[in-house]
Amino acid sequence: MPAPYKHIIWDWNGTLLNDTWLCVEVLNGLLTERGRKPLSEEDYRTHFGFPVVHFYEFLGFDTDRDSFEKVSHEFIGAYEARWLEECTLHQRAATALESLAARGISHSVLSAAEQSALEAGIAHFGIREHFLGLVGTDNIFARGKVEQGKEWIAQLDWAPAEIVLVGDTLHDFEVAQAIGADCILLAHGHHCPKRLLRTGAPVVDSLDELVQQLGPSGPSSGHTPDSIQVPEQRDNSA
């Protein structure tokens, strides 16, 4: 029998938002400008990871503090100019949220995306009503997800055993371990299935399969807390 989860903490980029292809295109633009060989989506999914600075090192970027900040701003600028207009949610994302909510399972988002960008994206795609809270970071370098996750799960009205984190990267699995929650990984995002399977966590290919994985019926006692505050954004740039 599936675990009686009452709450799902969702990752955003790659998990609900289909943006892997755009990240590859933007990175290839930066690499081409620097006379470097572009990478394929397969290469990206095989090597992308956190901390992001190590991935940039792998690609051959200069990653001293000033250079890393410069290329990070270039990436975010090019990404933000396109993602709201060109990206979509993964297939049947809204349907999955609705189906799971009908079983008594509530939702929130924990993302390495900057807070205002996360809020803008969720609003743009018309799915804000599904989430108790949206928890992003205060920087563009994808830092601070573990700390924000620990603060967030402490505010939720369920025990960690009643919560599952759904993501698409090894870092999502690490975050789940850090906050004491189970993890299910989606193979349609930023990491390839082979990497995800090494974690030992359940790996599914689609949101429809995720809904099936969580069972035909949800918990009978799920409920929404009366008052939950998103963790205060802190400076994690050091």
SSE layout and pairings?
Elements: E1 7-10, E2 17-18, H1 20-33, H2 41-47, H3 52-59, H4 65-80, H5 83-86, E3 88-89, H6 93-102, E4 106-114, H7 115-124, E5 131-137, H8 145-155, E6 163-167, H9 170-179, E7 182-186, H10 193-197, E8 203-204, H11 207-213
Parallel strand pairs: 1-4, 1-6, 4-5, 6-7, 7-8
Antiparallel strand pairs: 2-3
Give a short summary of the structure.
This protein has two domains: 7-18 and 88-213, 3-Layer(aba) Sandwich (Rossmann fold); 20-85. The protein has eleven helices and eight strands. The chain has helices spanning 20-33, 41-47, 52-59, 65-80, 83-86, 93-102, 115-124, 145-155, 170-179, 193-197, 207-213, and strands at 7-10, 17-18, 88-89, 106-114, 131-137, 163-167, 182-186, 203-204.
Biggest sheet: strands side by side, in what order? 5-4-1-6-7-8
Distance between the termini: 44 Å
Low-confidence stretches: 217-238
Secondary-structure content class: alpha/beta
CATH-defined topology of the largest domain: Rossmann fold
Topology as a string of helices (H) and strands (E)? EEHHHHHEHEHEHEHEHEH
Total beta strands? 8
* Discrete helix count: 11
